[in-house]
Amino acid sequence: MTAALSNPLRDPRDKRLPRIAGPSGIVIFGVTGDLSRKKLMPAIYDLANRGLLPPGFALVGFARRDWSREDFSTVVHDAVKQYARTPFSEDVWRHLAEGFRFVQGSFDDDVAFDTLAATLADLDEVRGTGGNHAFYFSIPPDAFPVVLKQLKRAGMCDHSEDQWRRVVIEKPFGSDLKTAQELNSLVSDVFPSESVFRIDHYLGKETVQNLLALRFANQMYEPIWNAHYVDHVQITQAEDIGVGGRAGYYDGIGAARDVIQNHLLQLMALTAMEEPGSFDPTNLRREKVKVLAAVRLPEDLMAGTARGQYAAGWQGGEKVPGYLDEEGIAASSQTETYAAVKLLVDNRRWAGVPFYLRTGKRLGKRVSEIAVVFKRAPHLPFAKGDTAELGSNALVIRVQPDEGITIRFGSKVPGPAMEVRDVSMDFSYGQSFTEASPEAYERLILDVLLGEPSLFPQDEEVELSWRILDPIERAWAKARTQPEPYGSGSWGPASADALMARDGRAWRRP
Asked: Which residues form the Glucose-6-phosphate dehydrogenase NAD-binding domain (predicted)?
């Protein structure tokens, strides 16, 4: 019996029981893109291989390509073989592929959407999908209006007590507050708020979810998770690659809109929020919204932020071009590839504790982490020089790669002298658990099928995030200055170090 066909209901000890999707299917718009090939298709296969999809699951691709169903199946097969995280099983694949369909057409093609509606109706009969379908928008935001209009016209958004229809939206969620509000209004005219799932793949990562377990399942951390003990928090997302083939998307958007507005502000909210009454989606969102609503920007936005552009140089032993030399980038582009901001949270828990957020391309290494840096002990009863190499205690949540948690603290160096030096205690998922962490898109796609919205930002969170970022973007635009160049393989522009130095602090070197 294959994983997809097995019946875990026979074994009440199977912990997958609450996480197995019911009858359902997914339609992917933009199915020919890299996201679909590298993430979505492999994630769907991995879910099937783990026994978490229903036996009659259906996957429908929609694109302009002149593909048959067999052509589409071959594309999915190749993507799965290359990018899936679980071993390839012919039995699982064969059963999953029976539910594949492909619809050819453009977004303004009424006939194509009528065909799509008929295809879903047929799948309801043949595969038993029960009228439950999710529409995945792996497409540019400017294509949303016409696709939403077509779905509504063809009656594919209709809900009832016995069936659901959901829409999944990839970032960016607008380019500023105004466009985000327009986008939210557009989507809400077609789908009710509980049926809208905005994907932020960072929130599907195991370590991000473990942040909640770390804080609220353990007594030892929560008493010191506040301004009495925490000096500051650093949240970093660094990439060691350039824009590559994303130049057309990236130029004009930049690092702040691409990463800080969504990923890093969400991580900040999870780090700073109060304990929710439960992990019910409403309670979880309420606490995140409180944090975002309490964020205060620096009075001097230029001094409290930094922006840069990577220059040509050497990285990983290879000569790499600067941003302005990348194909598709104008020589006069003022788009930043590095952004750092200082934020404050005006509430009792975090009063006076700065949160430093930074992101960039072509930096020293690929790493994403949350570092909670604690205040120094108020008194050190050691001789002068004994603690010369002792830094601040820190708790570092490693989001990627090498997911885990590191605690840095002072320890005596072996020997006759009382010399105290920093050491680290490390927890790694790979070493501590035999179970492999699922890929973020596995978790998020399954949550969509289950109707579990906890990890998906709602419109209020999105709009609050833009209220934070918009004044910074306006200040940068008003200054009309070129982003500061920084060397490829470095850790960003000098202005980012100056931002920290003004506060008597320094960035961590991951």
From this structure: 27-210
